[in-house]
Specification:
Residues 112-127 have a biased composition (Low complexity). Residues 128-138 have a biased composition (Polar residues). This protein has helices at 2-34, 39-45, 122-157, 163-188, and strands at 89-93, 106-113, 194-200. By secondary structure, the chain is mainly alpha-helical.
């Protein structure tokens, strides 16, 4: 009777014993793996490894060229209108048809007539008034061009405007100076009836 009861108890607790045994074996395997106690882990630890050479190269940006790209467009004029202080006839031409020209380049010489020097009466007075008006206008053009050059020179030195704008102002001053000289020569000459001026390419 006692033997039978002992066998029943053994069969009753056998699954629990198996589960406990499997659990303990699993815990032991995990601890052994984390502690590198397996033979194959020890073998991997003793495998010789090839050393790796590392070279350090200094990197700097000193004396490196800097490139700045700015979008824009180029304008090209095929024809430029010309304006004169008086009408007359062309006495000399310095360029040919279709020739490329640049700002400040002489184009032609214009010769105008101021009327006979021996005329008297209202026509003479009208001619003198016209001369005085033309002379004053030429002087005003020169004064304005000179002021522009001085003002643009200061702005260019401050870096506020490009050099091209200053050069255009200087070309306008040269044209005004030439017109003023021609007007002064015409006014100072009492023995000639012709007024001449040289037309140059205006700045764009």
């Amino acid at each position: 009777m006692e033997t039978t009861d002992m066998g029943k108890m053994t069969q009753q607790y056998r699954p629990a014993a198996i589960i406990i045994t499997v659990f303990l074996l699993s815990v032991a395997l995990v601890l052994a793996a984390r502690s590198d106690l397996f033979p194959f882990t020890l073998w991997f630890q003793h495998i010789p490894r090839t050393p790796v050479n590392v070279t350090a190269v200094p990197i700097g940006t000193i004396n490196k060229p800097i490139r700045i790209d700015r979008p824009g467009f180029i304008e090209n004029s095929t024809s430029i209108p010309l304006h004169t202080e008086f009408s007359g006839r062309v006495s000399e031409i310095y360029v040919t048809e279709g020739q490329a020209v640049k700002a400040g380049q002489p184009l032609l010489k214009l010769q105008g007539s101021s009327g006979p020097s021996g005329d008297s009466g209202p026509s003479t007075a009208t001619g003198e008034n016209q001369k005085a008006g033309v002379s004053q206008q030429v002087q005003d053009n020169y004064d304005n061009a000179l002021k522009d050059v001085k003002r643009y020179q200061k702005l260019y030195e401050q870096g506020a405007i490009p050099r091209r704008q200053l050069e255009d102002a200087m070309v306008r001053l040269q044209q005004a100076q030439a017109s003023l000289n021609n007007g002064q020569n015409a006014m100072s000459s009492t023995n000639t009836n012709a007024i001449t001026t040289t037309l140059m390419v205006p700045p764009r």
